[in-house]
C-alpha cells in the first residue's frame, strides 16, 4: 500500500513538473480592470416542503414573512394561529456577471436560515436580489435542487450531503444593468492573479509584439497598463479581444504545499534541496487496562473489589539508518531522494518541514 501511495505522489509531482513551463492564455492569468462580476444577496421564503421547514416557535421571522406575503396577496391572517411546517426562511445569493443585460438569467444558491431540516422539493417565492449599493438588480424564483438526502425512522436518522442548501439553475432574471462604459477607457489595467515581476514583463513584451508598438507598460509585479489609443484598435473591446488569447509561460515562486489532513504533497518544478542527511523514526506507546475482580468466599461478609491493573509498553520503531539526500538539481531527483527513505507521505511531511527548518529546502513551504 505504501508503494502505491508513493507511486501516486511521484506521478503527481511529475505531472506538476511537466505542466509548470506550459504556456497559458493571458485571460486565464489576469483580471481586466472594470470587467468584473457583482455579488447579489436576498432574503426570501421557500414553500412546499414536506414537513421539513422552520419550527416557527424558534424562527418567528419566518412567520412574519409568510404573513406579509399573504397580506400582499389579499389574504388576511391577522390574529390567526398560523403555524405551517412546510415553509422556511432562506438567504439567496447570486453573482451578476460583467455586461449582463436585462432579461438574462442567473444561477442562484439558496441556504436555510432557521432550523429547517431540508429544502428538498421546495419552491422559492419571488425574492429581490440586492447589490452592495442596496439596489435591486435581479429577482429570483423557482424550484430548488438540493444536493443532500435524509433518511429517517423512529429510532435512527441518516443524512448525506447538505439538504439545507441548494441551487436554482437560471432561477434569477436580471432586472437592472450595471452601467460601465468600457469604450470610454483610455487605459486598461491588467491585474495578475499571481503577482510576479518576470510574468508581468513577459505580458508587457507579448502585448507590445502583438501591436508592434509600446502600448503596454509594467508598473509593478501585479499590474500591466494597456494604453488603448496606441494600439490603433477600433475600440477598447477590440484591443482586449486581440490580447486575451496571447500565450504566456508564467514564472512562479518555488513552493511545496502539504495538506496534513489528507497527507497530500505537491511540489513545483523549481523546488531545490541542498545536500542533507535524514533519519526518520518514532516511538509507539501502548497502555492497556486489565482490571482484576476479587470476590469474597461464598457466604462470607466480604465485598467484591476491583483491583486496577495497567500494562504500559513503550516500543521503539525499527531502526532507520541515516540516509543522505543529494542536492537536487531537478524535481525527479528530489522525489527519488525522498522516496529512498522508504517512508509514507504523512511522514514525508514532517521530513520536509525539518529540511525547511534546517535551511536546506529552497522553496516556500505552505502547510494547510
TrEMBL record:
Pfam families assigned to the protein according to its UniProt record, in alphabetical order: FlgI (PF02119)
Bilayer-crossing regions: none
Keyword presence, Metal-binding: no
Subcellular location: Bacterial flagellum basal body
An annotated GO BP: bacterial-type flagellum-dependent cell motility
Keywords per UniProt: Bacterial flagellum, Cell projection, Cilium, Flagellum, Periplasm, Signal
InterPro entries: Flag_FlgI
Gene Ontology MF, one: structural molecule activity
Cleaved signal peptide residues: 1-22
Highest taxon listed in the record's lineage: Bacteria
GO (cellular component) term, any one: bacterial-type flagellum basal body, distal rod, P ring
Main location: other
Family note: Belongs to the FlgI family.
Protein role: Assembles around the rod to form the L-ring and probably protects the motor/basal body from shearing forces during rotation.
UniProt subunit comment: The basal body constitutes a major portion of the flagellar organelle and consists of four rings (L,P,S, and M) mounted on a central rod.
Protein known as: Flagellar P-ring protein
Lineage, opening ranks: Bacteria, Pseudomonadati, Pseudomonadota, Alphaproteobacteria, Rhodobacterales
Amino acid at each position: 500500500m505504501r508503494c502505491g501511495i508513493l507511486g501516486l505522489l511521484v506521478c503527481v509531482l511529475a505531472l506538476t513538473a511537466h505542466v509548470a513551463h506550459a504556456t497559458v492564455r493571458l485571460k486565464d492569468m489576469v483580471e481586466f480592470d472594470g470587467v468584473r462580476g457583482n455579488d447579489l444577496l436576498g432574503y426570501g421564503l421557500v414553500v412546499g416542503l414536506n414537513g421539513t421547514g422552520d419550527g416557527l416557535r424558534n424562527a418567528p421571522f419566518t412567520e412574519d414573512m409568510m404573513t406579509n406575503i399573504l397580506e400582499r396577496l389579499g389574504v388576511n391572517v391577522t390574529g390567526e394561529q398560523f403555524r405551517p411546517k412546510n415553509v422556511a426562511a432562506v438567504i439567496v445569493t447570486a453573482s451578476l456577471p460583467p455586461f449582463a443585460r436585462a432579461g438574462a438569467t442567473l444561477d442562484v444558491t439558496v441556504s436555510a436560515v432557521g432550523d429547517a431540516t431540508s429544502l428538498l422539493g421546495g419552491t422559492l417565492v419571488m425574492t429581490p436580489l440586492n447589490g452592495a449599493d442596496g439596489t435591486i438588480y435581479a429577482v429570483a424564483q423557482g424550484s430548488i435542487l438540493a444536493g443532500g438526502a435524509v433518511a429517517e425512522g423512529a429510532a435512527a436518522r441518516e443524512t448525506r450531503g447538505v439538504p439545507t442548501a441548494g441551487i436554482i439553475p437560471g432561477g434569477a432574471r436580471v432586472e437592472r444593468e450595471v452601467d460601465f462604459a468600457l469604450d470610454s477607457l483610455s487605459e486598461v489595467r491588467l491585474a495578475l492573479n499571481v503577482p510576479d515581476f518576470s510574468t508581468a514583463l513577459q505580458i508587457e513584451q507579448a502585448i507590445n509584439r502583438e501591436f508592434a508598438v509600446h502600448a503596454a507598460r509594467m508598473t509593478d509585479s501585479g499590474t500591466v497598463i494597456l494604453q488603448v489609443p496606441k494600439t490603433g484598435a477600433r475600440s477598447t473591446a477590440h484591443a482586449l479581444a486581440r490580447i486575451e488569447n496571447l500565450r504566456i509561460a508564467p514564472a512562479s515562486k518555488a513552493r511545496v504545499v502539504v495538506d496534513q489532513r489528507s497527507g497530500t504533497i505537491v511540489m513545483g518544478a523549481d523546488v531545490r534541496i541542498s545536500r542533507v542527511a535524514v533519519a526518520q523514526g518514532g516511538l509507539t506507546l501502548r497502555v492497556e487496562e486489565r482490571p482484576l475482580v476479587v470476590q469474597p468466599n461464598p457466604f462470607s461478609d466480604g465485598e467484591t473489589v476491583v483491583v486496577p491493573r495497567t500494562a504500559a509498553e513503550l516500543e521503539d520503531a525499527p531502526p532507520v539508518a541515516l540516509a543522505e539526500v543529494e542536492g537536487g538539481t531537478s524535481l525527479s531527483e528530489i522525489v527519488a531522494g525522498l522516496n529512498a527513505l522508504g517512508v509514507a507521505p504523512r511522514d514525508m511531511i514532517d521530513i520536509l518541514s525539518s529540511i525547511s527548518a534546517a535551511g536546506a529546502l529552497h522553496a516556500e513551504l505552505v502547510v494547510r
